[in-house]
Inverse folding.
């Protein structure tokens, strides 16, 4: 196998055309086999195999810098840079990340994970290169989906001012270009990317400009006429008008063509965009047929493409999806907004049943939030469904456009808390902190699937202000069904009465608190169990009741400690009941790497056994009577 001989870029450069084709096929088979075991991002990686090989042939990595937007399509890059043997531990704790990480390899030029950032990062790197007098190429690879993000256009606007080489590769796996326009574009591209042609343009412009009186006007007229013609025949005029030279489109599965155009792009003394057409999921029939489903996969059967482990029970996303559709049938003012995640957030069904009330704004969280604010101001009841870590991108819009006006926008935060294998950029462990810091914002966290339904009903049909509901990834908790206190604004619930020790938890940690109580009961220690339910406002009446009747209170949340629920409770208790001990169970002030969620919870000390150990370190009465 050729793949087994690849230990770095130098091995790729020694291959002939036929061997490169074979290498691409072997890489695809390797990726399918490995992700079928570990899970990961498959369709996007299958689409960029030849593109990545061409980058390794046209550029001198790691001296030259390649920045992958989002970064979930960097698996081939990791293989060609000598990390093939690390794929058995892909996305496992202590193993290789599914995204570029500078600490992992010198070939990873910039850490990525969220969308639409690569052009900004690449431009900054090119500016740093030029100011320091260094000489290397900077290449930003961005997808057509990521190009829907406003940050990409902010960067393109600035890239036009660059006076040195900077290459943007548009990995387009969705847009099709008709043959007549494509053929003309290819012809013109061959002329415009030619070094001699670009030199000729410079000389002609300089010569004409030197003609007294009419020179500058003549250059301007020729330029405007030329641009009018290009507008008709060149699909990249958007970029040209922004001051970025457009080259392409080029077949993203033809290594030879891409290497040629990449080398021509490198000769430019300004920003240039190369338009590359690829097929997402290429080489694996199930992924080609349904690239969205194979974007991020759990372990699957290669022959059928079906997951190896079917879901036993519906997840929180499924519960949210069904309940929202039910509410929307009864309330015609309800609309749903997503930022390019209809499948992941559960809004695909809503879009099917209520197409006129469903808005997918693309990868544009800031726009999603402010457009929802506009809908609310117009009299609608928008529900913005988004991953917790992605809503971070709309913080200013939540504060400035939603909450200052106290508009009734509902934020449904999926993937809140630890999400596992995607690592630092995707862990939803900051939302309680950044949302509770905003005036007028209210925050709920359901303890189980029934409470999620009740929370959503309350937020949409009863509450008239900004409100967020955060819930974790995966299977919905089915315990504690017997406790179904109605949702009352700002009120929690008492689930079990004990003495001395009170466990006060929110969201996903209520089930953990239940397990802590069960284990302590087996040792003869009877704890009170309470569900905070509202993170903002906290239920001061419930906290007062617990502090007045207990000596030790343990708060639990799946969020960082700073700015979280526990510190709010602690502040109240220290002010009104300073004699009561408080232990805050939360996540540390740190980024959490990728790994199995159960393993991460244990490592971070928020599993039931770790919590009991911490309780005994702080409060002696938490020791079992037998061990005293």
């Amino acid at each position: 196998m050729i793949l087994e001989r690849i230990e770095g870029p130098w091995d790729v450069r020694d291959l002939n055309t036929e061997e490169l084709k074979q290498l691409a096929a072997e890489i695809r088979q390797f990726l399918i086999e490995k992700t079928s075991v570990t899970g990961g991002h498959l369709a996007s990686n299958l689409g960029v195999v030849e593109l990545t090989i061409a980058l390794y042939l046209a550029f001198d990595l790691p001296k030259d810098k390649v920045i992958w937007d989002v970064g979930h399509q960097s698996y081939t890059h990791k293989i060609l840079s000598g990390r093939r043997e690390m794929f058995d531990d892909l996305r496992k704790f202590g193993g290789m990340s599914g995204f570029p990480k500078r600490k992992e390899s010198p070939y990873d030029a910039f850490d990525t994970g969220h969308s639409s950032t690569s052009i900004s990062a690449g431009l900054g790197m090119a500016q740093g290169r030029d100011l320091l007098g260094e000489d290397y190429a900077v290449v930003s690879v961005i997808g057509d989906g990521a190009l829907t993000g406003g940050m990409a256009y902010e960067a393109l606007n600035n890239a036009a001012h660059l006076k040195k080489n900077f290459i943007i590769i548009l990995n387009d796996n969705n847009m099709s270009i008709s043959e007549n326009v494509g053929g003309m574009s290819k012809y013109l591209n061959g002329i415009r990317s030619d070094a001699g042609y670009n030199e000729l343009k410079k000389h002609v412009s300089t010569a004409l400009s030197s003609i007294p009186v009419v020179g500058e006007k003549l250059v301007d007229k020729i330029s405007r006429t030329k641009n009018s013609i290009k507008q008709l025949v060149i699909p990249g005029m958007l970029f040209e008008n922004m001051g970025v030279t457009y080259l392409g489109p080029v077949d993203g599965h033809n290594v030879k063509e891409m290497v040629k155009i990449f080398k021509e792009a490198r000769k430019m003394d300004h920003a240039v965009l190369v338009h590359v057409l690829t097929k997402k999921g290429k080489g694996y029939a199930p992924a080609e047929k349904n690239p969205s489903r194979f974007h991020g996969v759990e372990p699957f059967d290669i022959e059928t493409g079906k997951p190896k482990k079917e879901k036993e029970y519906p997840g929180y996303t499924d519960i949210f999806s069904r309940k929202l559709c039910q509410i929307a049938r009864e309330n015609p003012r309800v609309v749903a907004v997503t930022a390019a995640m209809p499948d992941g957030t559960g809004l695909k069904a809503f879009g099917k049943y209520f197409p006129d009330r469903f808005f997918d704004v693309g990868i544009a969280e800031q726009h999603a939030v402010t457009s929802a604010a506009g809908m609310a101001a117009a009299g609608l009841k928008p529900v913005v469904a988004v991953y917790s870590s992605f809503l971070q991108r709309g913080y200013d819009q939540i504060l400035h456009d939603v909450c200052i006006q106290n508009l009734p926008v509902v934020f449904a935060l999926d993937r809140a808390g630890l999400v596992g294998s995607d690592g630092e950029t995707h862990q939803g462990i900051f939302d309680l902190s950044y949302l509770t810091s905003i005036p007028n914002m209210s925050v709920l966290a359901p303890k189980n699937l029934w409470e999620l339904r009740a929370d959503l009903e309350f937020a949409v049909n009863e509450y008239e202000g900004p409100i967020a509901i955060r819930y974790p990834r995966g299977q919905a908790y089915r315990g504690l069904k017997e406790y179904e206190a109605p949702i009352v604004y700002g009120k929690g619930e008492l689930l079990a009465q004990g003495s001395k020790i009170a466990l006060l938890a929110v969201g996903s940690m209520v089930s953990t608190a239940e397990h802590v109580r069960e284990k302590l009961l087996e040792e003869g220690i009877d704890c009170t169990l309470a569900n905070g339910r509202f993170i903002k406002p906290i239920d001061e009446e419930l906290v007062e009741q617990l502090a007045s009747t207990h000596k030790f209170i343990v708060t639990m949340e799946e969020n960082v400690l700073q700015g979280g629920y526990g510190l709010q409770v602690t502040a109240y208790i220290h002010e009104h009941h300073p004699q009561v001990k408080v232990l805050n169970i939360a996540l540390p002030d740190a980024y959490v790497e990728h790994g199995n969620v159960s393993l991460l919870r244990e490592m971070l000390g928020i599993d039931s056994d770790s919590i009991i150990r911490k309780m005994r370190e702080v409060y002696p009465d938490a020791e079992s009577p037998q061990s005293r």
About this structure: The CA atoms of residues 369 and 407 lie 11 Å apart. The radius of gyration is 28 Å. The first helix runs from residue 9 to 13. The chain is about 40% helix and 15% strand.
